[in-house]
Amino acid sequence: MFPTGFVSHDCFKNSFVSVEPIVSSSSLPYLTIHFNFSIVQQFWYIRPNDQASVYRGGIREDCSTKSTQIINHLSDTMLYEKLDHALSQVFMQFKDEFEDQQHVIVEQTTRKLLSITTTEMSEVCVDVELQIDHYCDSRILLALEESSTVDGMVPASESSIELLEPMEADERNSNDDCSVCLDELGEETDVLRLPCSHMFHAECITKWLQNSHYCPLCRFQMPTD
To answer: In sequence order, which residues have a C-beta less than 8 Å from that of residue 52 and are 6 or more positions away?
Structure first.
């Protein structure tokens, strides 16, 4: 849930895994792994003129009320595969939040387990924290506000926006700037091309055209309702 008045333009995820042994004794050569999950959502405001981002607050959620136990033999060479399978079952409850982080979490967990596991160790606790940073870009907001103040401004039709051509990484110059947010188009972001051939970040030009049917660069007119 976003703070009141917060508009998310970008979202970045990072997973942090910590592994701690649980003091216990066992004569069996098995390791019991307990998993606990939490999500920390942080909200940032990107100010204009390249000033530092401002932190707007955070929300912490505990995703599971009890641990998930995974039992493995200490000499098991299939540890990675078993962890991956077990986490697939766990993430069914939190698919939207964790699904794209599963590979990273399994990799971190496997590496840390292998570095601390001993024959005397019978239980460990793995805490997984997913940090989601949401960014509200004031440059986009300012551009939209400026476009909406022009007399006679009419949004482009939804159908014309949906038909905009997506550009693959090899079809664009990643060093070119998006004239809406003034950042480079880059290779990892989604880019759309208008019929006039000008290219913009997909999210930027979509928000722009929902307020104005003109191309921000050449004033080409998109269809309206």
So the answer is: none
Distances (CA, A) of 209 to 125, 194, 201: 50, 11, 12
In Å, how far are 133, 178, 200, 203, 217 from 169, measured between CA atoms? 25, 14, 13, 16, 21
Say if residues 53 and 45 touch (Cβ distance below 8 Å): yes
In 10 A of CB 124, how many CB atoms?
21
Q: What is the pLDDT of residue 187?
A: 78
Q: Which amino acid, 92? A: M
Dihedral angle of Cα 176, 178, 96, 57, to the nearest 10 degrees: 120
pLDDT < 50 positions in the chain: 65
Segments of the chain assigned E as strands: 10-22, 30-46, 54-62, 68-73, 123-137, 165-166, 191-193, 199-201
Local structure of residue 48 (DSSP, 8 states): S
Strands 123-137 and 30-46, how do they pair? parallel
Q: Could you tell me the two tokens for 26?
A: 């066992």
Rounded to a whole number of angstroms, the CA Rg of the chain reads 24
* H or E segment to which residue 38 belongs: strand 30-46
CA angle 158, 161, 167 (to 5 degrees): 160
Determine whether 77 is exposed, middle or buried from the number of CB atoms within 10 Å of its CB (0-12, 13-18, 19+): exposed
Domains present along the chain, CATH in parentheses: 10-135 (no CATH), 150-209 (3.30.40.10)
Q: Is 195 helix (H, G, I), strand (E, B) or coil?
A: coil
What pLDDT is recorded for position 65? 45
Taking Cα atoms as reference points, which of 137, 150, 113 lies closest to residue 22?
113
